[in-house]
Each structure stands twice: as structure tokens, then as C-alpha cells.
Design brief:
Helix content: under 10%
Pfam family, one: 3keto-disac_hyd
GO molecular function, one term: hydrolase activity
Protein name: Calcium-binding protein
CATH topology: Jelly Rolls
Shape: globular
Keywords: Signal
Order of helices and strands: EEEEEEEEEEEEEEEEE
CATH superfamily: Exo-inulinase, domain 1
Number of domains: 1
Largest sheet: 9 strands, antiparallel
CATH architecture: Sandwich
Radius of gyration: 16 Å
Strand content: over 45%
Structural class: mainly beta
Length: about 220
């Protein structure tokens, strides 16, 4: 397989401060197809994406249009401009509101995705109110979705959670809030690289302190909390 074109700074990349005015300014609109601090807004789900400053740190916010029927869903996705192979990821994420009424689905929260090449090929980790899920979006499975590992530990809405993922070759290690969840080996056509993404469905979500490093490397700089 041809080696991926990894950015010169892929060894350690810090994507923590979208360029928005300091102070209590309102959330600055983030149009589709534009880049904020290394993240390209791929789509906003017919809703609103924006960036703002809080406590001296920058925050990306995604809020797609609320679904109007059980069969309807809207999603938002922001991607790194660079592609990564063996990689470590750490980001803080918070789900402010689930938008579906009257009854939201548990997975309508903040997701982290990686090795993304298109909407049919990527891995994801999603901490949910009723558990957690590691999965792979891939053709050939119902809904193009293959469940790799799940657990029952719950993650509350409205609070920040620190999500950490590392993938080396076909082996994925995942943790949330400092607690290791799983080490999983994908033996079925594992993805070898792609973009990192922040994603949500039918929810208003916030992300901050995104850090990306080559696997085996330390994150540089102090994490802002």
C-alpha cells in the first residue's frame, strides 16, 4: 500500500484554538467548506456550526437541524486537513443538547472519528448516556456499520469528557476520562489511515483541546482545562 502523505507536523499537532475574537463574543459562524484551526467543516447538517472562546480556549460547536420525524436524521462533520496513519488522538467533547423530540436516541451525542476517507469508510468511538461503542463504518454490513466493541459504562450529557484513541496498524486502543475501555485488533481489512473528525447526529455538541500525535510520541504542551 502506498504510504500516506502525512503533514510535516504530524509528529505532534495541536489544534486547540479556533481563530475567533477573545472575550464573551457570540459563537462566530463557521461556514461549510472553510477551515478553523486545522479543521475543515465538511457539512453542518443544515444547521449551524460556529467557534467561540471559553476560559481562554477555543471551542468548535456543531448543531445540525433537528430531526422532524423518526426516519429523519441530520449530522455534522469537521475533519483535519491532514491525513494520518499510526496516530494518537485526544480531545475533550461535550453534548449540550440532544435535539430529537420527543425521544432522542442514545447515540445522538459527540463522536470522534479517524482513518476517515469518506462517509462509508472510517472508525469511530462514541461515549453514550447508556454505554460506549467502538465501531467501523464499512460497506457489506447492515447500515454499513460494524460494531467492534461495546460497554455499559455511561457518560452523562452536559459535561466534558476526555476521549483518547490510538491506532497502530490494525490495533485500536480507546479510553474515556482516563479509563481504558478496550484494545481491539481489526483483522478484517483494517483501514490504514485517513482524516480525523469531530462528528455528531441530531445534537448540539462542543469540542476543544484536540491533540494529534504520531503513535508512540508524546503530546507537547500543557493541556488547557
Amino acid at each position: 500500500m502506498r504510504a500516506l502523505a502525512v503533514p510535516a507536523l504530524a509528529a505532534v499537532a495541536l489544534l486547540a484554538h479556533p481563530a475567533v475574537p477573545a472575550g464573551p463574543a457570540p459563537c462566530a459562524p463557521w461556514p461549510e467548506g472553510t477551515v478553523r484551526a486545522g479543521l475543515l467543516l465538511s457539512y453542518d447538517g443544515y444547521g449551524r456550526a460556529c467557534t467561540y472562546q471559553a476560559g481562554g480556549r477555543g471551542v468548535w460547536q456543531l448543531s445540525p437541524r433537528p430531526a422532524r420525524s423518526p426516519a429523519e436524521t441530520h449530522a455534522a462533520l469537521a475533519l483535519t486537513t491532514g491525513r494520518y496513519a499510526d496516530v494518537r488522538i485526544r480531545v475533550r467533547a461535550r453534548t449540550l443538547h440532544q435535539l430529537r423530540r420527543p425521544t432522542p436516541n442514545a447515540w445522538e451525542v459527540a463522536w470522534v472519528v479517524w482513518h476517515y476517507t469518506d462517509d462509508d469508510h472510517f472508525y469511530y468511538l462514541v461515549p453514550k448516556p447508556n454505554g460506549w461503542e467502538l465501531g467501523k463504518v464499512t460497506p457489506g454490513y447492515p447500515g454499513n456499520q460494524r460494531y467492534l466493541a461495546t460497554g455499559t459504562r455511561s457518560y452523562a450529557l452536559g459535561v466534558w469528557h476526555t476521549i483518547e484513541v490510538q491506532q497502530v496498524g490494525d490495533t485500536i486502543t480507546a479510553a474515556v476520562d482516563g479509563r481504558r475501555l478496550v484494545r481491539f485488533r481489526d483483522r478484517e481489512r483494517p483501514y490504514q489511515g485517513g482524516h480525523i473528525g469531530l462528528y455528531d447526529e441530531d445534537a448540539t455538541t462542543c469540542f476543544t483541546d484536540l491533540r494529534v500525535a504520531s503513535a508512540g510520541k508524546r503530546f507537547h504542551g500543557a493541556q488547557r482545562r
